[in-house]
Amino acid sequence: MIKHRHFISLMFLLVALALVIPEDANAQRRSGRIFRFQNILEHDLRPYHFGFTVGVNTLDFALWPEKYLNQIHGFTYVLPTQDYGFHVGIVSNLKLHQYFDLRFIPTFSFGDRYIAFYEDDYDQGYKYRQELSPYFLDFPLHIKYKSARMTNTRAYVIGGVKYSYDLGSYEDRRPGGDNPLFLRTAKNDFHYEIGVGFDHYFYYFKFSTEIKASFGFRNLVLDGEEDIVFGAQERHWSSIDRLNSRSIMISFLFE
Questions:
Q1: Phi first, then psi: what are they for 34, rounded to 5°?
Q2: How many CA atoms lie less than 13 Å away from 97 in the CB half-sphere?
Q3: For the chain, how far is it from start to end, CA to CA, in angstroms?
Q4: Alpha helix locations (H) across 139-238?
Q5: Is the dihedral of CA 185, 188, 193, 199 positive or negative?
Q6: What is the pLDDT of residues 4-62, one digit of tens each?
Q7: Number of domains observed in the structure of the chain
Q8: Most buried residue, 1, 25, 195, 220, by CB count within 10 Å?
Q9: Strand pairing of 77-95 and 100-104?
């Protein structure tokens, strides 16, 4: 299992540093005034601007098993398991209106997720488990609707669609190897996304915190491969009726 603790620690460190910046004190020293004023007013007037984003995510599946799972396939449960991941991307923002932006944020993200096949009770543990370690190239296109600016903060909501290409997909893997292949997942997927966030205007840049949910359209399950060593059989991949990707992403954006 891939560990991302160093990345996650770095993200929280960046957030902590950003939140403790003594903005008010610096503003007072620069202007000699005792009241707070709006930073980088020209930022909202730009027709377009760029930035970058980093963050953490949880990758998961929405899984629907076949109707007669136990009688036909011999499994009591087939369950997905989520894990944590990391992502980094480039922000491109086009101003459409005072309160609307069009955003394109190509992102590279990765993590772990699993599907476990249980032949007995859940408490007895799984008998077969497929590890899936995706490496996504994501291409989301969002509409951002933002509130009126409240001094140096504003709230916003986003919504849109995303195309994902999984560099780590087993779709084209041929038989053989040291790992079982109880099922394959497709490498191309489409999602719809919704999220909320806050913009914070500092003296030199805009910092945003955002949480976003992503839901895949495509049924990702594909045939696995027969393997007498690991016990992989058709009953494994045929026990899943539908498998959709889903994730939650917490992002920190610098623009």
A1: -105, 0
A2: 8
A3: 33
A4: 234-237
A5: positive
A6: 444 454 454 444 444 444 444 444 444 444 336 889 988 888 999 999 999 999 999 99
A7: 1
A8: 220
A9: antiparallel
